[in-house]
Amino acid sequence: MTHRRPEPDGSTSVLDDDGQIVAVRVDDDTLQQWEGERGAQPAREQREQREQSPQPAREQREQREQSPGGDDLSSHSSLSSHSSRGSWSWPGGLGRAAFHGLPGTIVEWIDPHTEADPAAVLVQLLTAFGNASGRGAHFQVEGDQHMSNLFALIVGDTAKGRKGTSWGRVRQVMEHADPAWVSGSIVDGLSSAEGLIHVVRDPVLAPGDEGDDEVIEEGAADKRLMVQEGEFAAVLQRMRRQGNALSPVIRTLWDRGEARTLTRSNPVKVTGGHVSIVGHITADELRREMSATDAANGFANRFLFVCARRSKVIPRPKSVNEAELRDLAGEVREALRFAGTIRRAELDDRAAHLWDEVYEVLSEGRRGLLGTVTSRAEAITLRVALIYALMDQTSVIGEAHLRASLELWRYCEQSARYIFGDAMGDPLADELLAALRLAGNVGLTRTEIRSRVGGSTPAARIDTALTVLLDHGRVRSEREPTGGRAAERWFAADPAPLVGPEREQREERERSHDNGDLSSVPYLPSQLLDLPGEEAA
User: CA 511, CA 279: separation in Å to the nearest integer?
Assistant: First the structure.
């Protein structure tokens, strides 16, 4: 049993029978940026401790996991990233819980030799292992089988976020652990649905002379496929072309490992495909190229969004210790062999109890575009927990595996909030919200709104966009007397902070409004929604 306790900051703590906080529910109107987990131990600090000790990596890991973790091990409490209204911060670092087991040991071992973000290294390691382990181990949820294949987007704040560098070190480990997988199952680039299906295709059959089916085209010998797309913005652009079927094919491959194309005389299909995707993109590109359709149709919510930037400056990276590399790769190899023997995974009692506690928080929908792109939190969390368990060579998902997955999800949800801010996912609604924020306390009348979006926009379409904003608490309206029919004036619920020319423009507009004259005030286009993570400028 659990009970809830309102907190002074507007959040609600969910407590277990012992009075321990197991989750925190936060209203979208009271979200504030977390400063990071209390007592979280940075990866660098863990690494320094490890380097001062002569113990083998496996022994250190076991001691680390058996020791009391402090408050930071309750990281699942912060499933909802807190963010101050109107200013979306870069996500705080991953907490210690995410660096559980073999994945944590490998990331900490890689860290001194790379400028890459540890979060990007970790996610790509989990994705690589999950793909290399094949389509066998799964977690059953009602009629759905959740396999170990993940989709992830590594999102940099700039083009120099060292997004690609993070894959190089992971590939180095996997080359030693499973060279056949690296040479045969990793491909670069996504161009078409047909091309994607062809790589993992089933055999093509046709009726033979004696009535039996004959193979007229051989199928793929290995149905594992790890797609590394360094320019994911180009993929999003291709998906918008008429007739491009990449989006539905990618979605069904994530769901069931099945897809088909009917564009040829002999249809090509795939069953039992095990496809994982890692894309690299900047935050600006992602906001610009991802369409409302991509978000609404479930394409985006199958991806983990991982903010990544340069973690340090290393002008002359040192080579890794080859003996340590072989040892770690050997552990990965053993875990892959184990994973190949597993079919159905289960939660142990402690993990099941934890899952019951956090499920409501995970499954609770968010508003706007953020809610749309993070709406598969439960499924993705279970998939990641499964991979942590397989890398520990167990078919039982334990509490530590689930906590690790929850902490990683927290970071990815914070990343999504940084990337998409409070955008609604409706281009017109987002445009109107930006205009109303810029208008400040003066607001805009219906006539002014119509002039901002262009006279060709149907009034019904504007009504729909305003209704969306009103339903989500982003705007309010007031009636004001005019001497005739009352005018309707609309305001943003939270006018954005402005600096520079836009601030001067708002102040001039408000002064003019006080004087009853708005004719001399220009209106500058606002790109406020394109700048989460910073004060609008």
Answer: 48
Q: Are residues 442 and 502 in the same domain?
A: yes
Same domain, 20 and 149: no
CA–CA gap between residue 295 and residue 285 (Å, rounded): 15
Please tell me whether residues 19 and 117 are part of one structural domain: no
Please report whether residue 536 resides in a domain: no
Strands 487-492 and 444-445: antiparallel
Which amino acid does the sequence have at 508?
E
Q: State the Cα–Cα distance between residues 75 and 40, nearest whole angstrom.
A: 9
Over the stretch 142-187, which tens digit does the pLDDT of each residue have?
A: 999 999 999 999 999 776 655 567 899 999 999 999 999 999 999 9
Query: pLDDT per residue over 66-107, tens digit each?
Result: 543 333 333 333 333 333 234 568 898 899 999 999 999 999
Amino acid at 384: V
In this predicted structure, what is the pLDDT of residue 10?
Answer: 58
CA atoms of 449 and 86, how far apart (whole Å) = 22
- Same-domain check for residues 78 and 88: yes
CATH of the domain at 64: 3.40.50.300
Q: Are residues 228 and 295 in the same domain?
A: yes
What domain range includes position 20? 1-30
Residues 457 and 336 in one domain: no
- Domain boundary at 362, 392, 420, which? 420
Q: Are residues 381 and 491 located together in one domain of the fold?
A: no
DSSP string for 119-160: HHHHHHHHHHHHHHT-S--EEEETTEEE-S--EEEEEESSTT
Average pLDDT over residues 363-377: 88
Greater pLDDT, 63 or 234: 234
* Residue 41: band (very low, low, confident or very high) from pLDDT cuts 50, 70, 90: very low
What sign does the dihedral 19-21-25-30 (CA atoms) show?
positive
- Collect all residues with Cβ–Cβ distance below 8 Å to 28 and sequence separation of at least 6: 366, 367, 473
Question: DSSP readout, 275-338?
Answer: EEEEEEEEHHHHHHH--HHHHHTTSGGGEEEEEE------SSPPPPPHHHHHHHHHHHHHHHHH
3 state DSSP class of 211: coil
Identify the H or E element spanning 208: none
Please state, in angstroms and rounded to a whole number, the distance separating the CA atoms of residues 257 and 273: 4
Q: Are residues 404 and 465 in the same domain?
A: no
What does pLDDT average to over the chain? 80
Spell out the residues 6+ positions from residue 178 whose beta carbon is closer than 8 angstroms to its own.
Answer: 132, 332, 333, 336
pLDDT tops 60 at residue 38? no
Please tell me the predicted confidence (pLDDT) of residue 45: 47
pLDDT band at 46 (very low <50, low <70, confident <90, very high): very low
pLDDT above 80: residue 60: no
Instruction: Look up the pTM and report it.
Output: 0.75
